[in-house]
Write a structure and sequence with these properties.
It is a single chain. By secondary structure, the protein is mainly α. The mean pLDDT is about 75.
Amino acid sequence: MVCPMCLVPLLLVPLINLLPRIIDFLMAKVYAWLGWEYRKPARVPPACPLKPSDNKNSTKAAAEAGAGSTEGTIAKPVVAEESGGVKQD
């Protein structure tokens, strides 16, 4: 026997995925009832949340390209001494 609460996530995932389509359907029905035309909003295609990072190569190329010029360099923030961040006179 399977615990019913264990099945809740399995049932919620498809429902959540269908939620935008259900809302569009209901909005179309409400607009039709009011005599208006409902146009579905443009949806953004799903994108991969994990993008490959090429930080090692891009930072080396940026460092080599920026080595000759001083324009466009970003100044590093001043770090407080090891006195706990309290400025002493």
